[in-house]
Design a protein that fits this description.
- By secondary structure, the protein is an alpha/beta fold.
- It folds into two domains: 207 residues, P-loop containing nucleotide triphosphate hydrolases (Rossmann fold); 181 residues, 3-Layer(aba) Sandwich (Rossmann fold), CATH 3.40.50.300.
- The strands form three sheets. An eight-stranded mixed sheet has the order 7-1-6-5-2-4-3-16, with helices on both faces. A six-stranded parallel sheet has the order 8-13-12-9-11-10, with helices on both faces.
- The C terminus is likely disordered.
- The chain contains 14 helices and 16 strands.
- The radius of gyration is 23 Å and the shape is globular.
């Protein structure tokens, strides 16, 4: 079925054709006609299923038919800066042949260019809740003309504690509007929010609730906690992995693992909430162009990262919330591509693994632990701590009875260390400039 059969105007179909999209995905086929008809939507679909286009395309068509205003007529709320940027890029791409203006605002960058953009006027505003409320408090944004509200990654926004901010934003909107709510997973909180927000809704669910995408091959390695770093380095080097997205629980852990991977000769960078927007943009750019081989991330990156055909996701540490496992591994296996999700599970994480398997309603296959060399000894300036590993991953004490290993390093490290990229050559971390404001007329 071609896109135009969904009722999309020729200008939108033309933009889709230029991007190589021929037929709609199941979620697009389900939501586009309902949105064009003015229905409220509650859509459950895994990441990588085309849901951004699912709400962007009919939203653009509905706005094109209306009268232009200086104040936003559509508001798209998203949880992270990265997702805000990517959604805005989709708005620009699909609306390139329409006379509609769009703007993106998020924190971590200067607010004054955003204020200037809002003063010039926009039809579509993509925003994170915190920065949007900053603008509302300063009275630099008028939300009284919003006709369409989109909550993208609604479950993630609730997980990140944005429910109060969302309710504050909703109070600033006109009561009569179309509401579109998209969520990769369903929970009681999502249901309650939907009941208070949506009316005469059409519910579209493409994948089973909280299910992991079928195109992702999942593996578990049972390994001692102190041997995880050596195993990860072995897998990346000896199995020639490139573009590996590695998840840790904490920002400190991400910084420490990044430095350790760099010491192992693997080009790595960290991305998390304490990184500046420019550093996050630079790390992501290096990862996409293969100068960074391993991107170490906290939960902030489990949503909003759009990396075409990302082949590998590694759970260096299992998440405390089982649903976050689905979000993490959903970064690979997108848009029909295959992917591999590897979890390094230590003994103290057995309960977390059981919770994840209960959510998935299946056991994740456990793979035999390969032989791998121990982690390299600490640098001269590092305090010995931890444990050397034998080839089978067992712990070895030094003669003084103190374990040998790496000292915890607090300072974040930069990318650009020597490592292996797709070409096998050494690269430097791609330099990029981050701009918090992007505005274009189609």
């Amino acid at each position: 079925m071609p896109f135009i059969a969904l009722g999309l105007m020729p200008e939108l179909a033309r933009a889709l054709t230029e991007r190589g999209y021929v037929e709609p995905t199941p979620v697009q086929a389900g939501v586009v006609p309902a949105i064009l008809a003015g229905r409220d939507i509650l859509a459950g679909a895994q990441t990588g299923t085309g849901k951004t286009a699912g709400f962007t395309l009919p939203m653009l068509q509905r706005l094109q038919a209306g009268a232009p205003q200086r104040a936003p007529r559509a508001l798209i709320l998203v949880p992270t800066r990265e997702l805000a940027t990517q959604v805005h890029e989709s708005v620009l791409a699909y609306g390139k042949y329409l006379r509609l203006r769009s703007l993106v605002v998020f924190g971590g960058v200067g607010i004054h260019p955003q204020i200037e953009g809002l003063r010039r006027g926009t039809d579509i505003l993509v925003a994170t809740p915190g920065r949007l409320l900053d603008h509302a408090q300063q009275r630099t944004v008028d939300l009284s003309h919003v006709e369409i509200l989109v909550l993208d990654e609604a479950d993630r926004m609730l997980d990140m504690g944005f429910i109060a901010d969302i309710r504050r934003v909703i109070k600033l909107l006109p009561p009569q509007r179309q509401n579109l709510m998209f969520s990769a997973t369903y929970s009681d909180d999502i249901r309650r929010l939907a009941q208070s927000l949506l009316h005469h809704l059409a519910e579209v669910e493409v994948a089973r609730r909280n299910a992991a995408v079928d195109s992702v091959e999942q593996r578990v390695y049972r390994v001692e906690k102190d041997s995880k770093r050596a195993l990860l380095s072995h897998l990346i080097r000896d199995e020639d992995w490139s573009q590996v997205l590695v998840f840790t629980r904490t920002k400190h852990g991400a910084n420490r693992l990044t430095k350790q991977l760099q010491q192992d000769g693997i080009a790595a960078a960290a991305i998390h909430g304490n990184k500046s927007q420019s550093a996050r943009t630079q790390a992501l750019a290096g990862f996409k162009n293969y100068s960074i081989r391993a991107l170490v991330a906290t939960e902030v990156a489990s949503r909003g990262l759009d990396i075409k055909e990302l082949p590998y996701v590694v759970n260096y540490e299992l998440p405390n919330v089982p649903e976050d496992y689905v979000h993490r591994i959903g970064r690979t296996g997108r848009a029909g591509a295959s992917g591999i999700a590897v979890s390094l599970v230590s003994g103290d994480e057995s309960g977390l693994l059981k919770d994840i398997e209960k959510l998935l309603r299946k056991q994740i296959p456990q793979v035999r632990l390969p032989e791998f060399p121990p982690a390299p000894p600490p640098r001269d300036h590092e305090e010995p701590r931890g444990g050397m590993r034998t080839m089978n991953g067992s712990r070895q004490e030094n003669t003084a009875g103190r374990p040998v290993g790496d000292r915890v390093v607090n300072s974040p490290s930069r990318g650009g260390q020597q490592g292996h990229a797709r070409s096998g050559a050494n690269h430097r971390l791609a330099r990029g400039r981050s701009r918090g404001l992007s505005r274009s007329r189609g």
